[in-house]
Design goal:
The structure is a single chain. The protein has helices at about 10-20, 30, 40-50, 70-90, 105, 115-130, 155-165, 180-195, 210-220, 260-270, 275, and strands at about 1-5, 25, 55-60, 95-100, 135-140, 140-145, 170, 175, 180, 200, 210, 230. It is an alpha/beta fold. Helix 4 packs parallel to helix 6. The protein is globular.
């Protein structure tokens, strides 16, 4: 059985769509909403006990992404919930997959509560693996392709500027990013489970673009280059300006769509015909 915790979120929806309804169970939010509490391990054990030693997998796709959210809320959802699930199924022979971000390795996270919560989760997984637990933590890059882009992320800010035809101020845009379509990422996640390795793994395609690439391509695609203000904002001190990630061997035959045309197609699909008209 494939279990998906957080099946209504973008990543959860992509995983559900990849596997289909057969042998897939997406947990209702009402089932797991209190599993972040310290007393939830017995309830979690009872829920999953019928699938003991069945080679089942739990994908914990629930999570909060906005670093401006309350730090305690981020820790409850991003750390305590998955930690308790791993504790609850520890003796059931069920594998657990958690999700983090490559920013865990790039930023100190001192001022980013989101990164802090994911780094804490990663640390728990590493400790659990050292105790011979069958759990994994997948570090992801920027995902796109389902629903409108999150308004607090770079692509969401660009999207809102394009939709309203408003000037868009940004840095020089030298920051390097990998953009992965949710559909491609679901395939990559499945391939990881077929080449299972407990611990921490990065899902890289190895083809980064700069934020300037993203912005200039999109504003050009919709013929509004005059709205783009590259260099209007200061460069952040803590950023990834140099590091590119290597595609792991287990993803050698995994196809990721080209970022720039993929992002243009996605944003065009989210704009109304009038908004997308050149």
């Amino acid at each position: 059985m494939i279990f998906v915790v957080g099946g209504n979120g973008r990543l959860g929806r992509a995983i559900n769509a990849y596997y289909g309804e057969t042998n897939t169970q997406s947990l209702a939010h009402s089932v797991y909403q209190d599993w972040w509490m310290p007393t939830s391990s017995k309830e979690i054990y009872k829920y999953f006990a019928p699938w003991e030693q069945t080679n089942s997998i739990i994908y914990i796709a629930s999570g909060l992404l906005d670093p401006k959210l309350d730090a305690a809320d981020l820790m409850r959802v991003n750390y305590h919930l998955p930690m308790n699930i791993m504790e609850g199924v520890a003796d059931l022979g069920i594998r657990v997959v958690t999700f983090g971000t490559v920013l865990e390795t790039l930023f100190s996270g001192s001022g980013n509560h989101y990164v802090q919560s994911k780094r804490a989760l990663c640390g728990y997984v590493e400790q659990a693996v050292s105790n011979r637990r069958d759990v994994a933590h997948l570090r992801l890059h920027t995902l796109y392709g389902i629903g409108d882009p999150a308004p607090f992320m770079f692509l969401g800010l660009v999207f809102n500027a394009l939709r309203s035809r408003a000037p868009f101020e940004m840095t020089l845009g030298r920051q390097l990013r990998e953009y992965h379509h949710f559909t491609d990422e679901a395939d990559a996640i499945h391939r990881f489970t077929q080449d299972w390795k407990p611990g921490v793994t990065e899902l890289n395609h190895g083809q980064p673009v700069t934020l300037k690439d993203i912005a200039t391509t999109l504003f050009s695609a919709f013929d509004v280059e005059s709205l783009l203000r590259v260099g209007a904002l200061p460069e952040p001190a803590e950023e990834n300006y140099e590091k590119s990630f290597q595609k792991p061997e287990f993803l050698a035959n995994c196809t990721f769509r080209d970022t720039l045309p993929g992002v243009v197609e996605y944003i065009e699909s989210r704009l109304s015909p009038a908004q997308a008209k050149n």
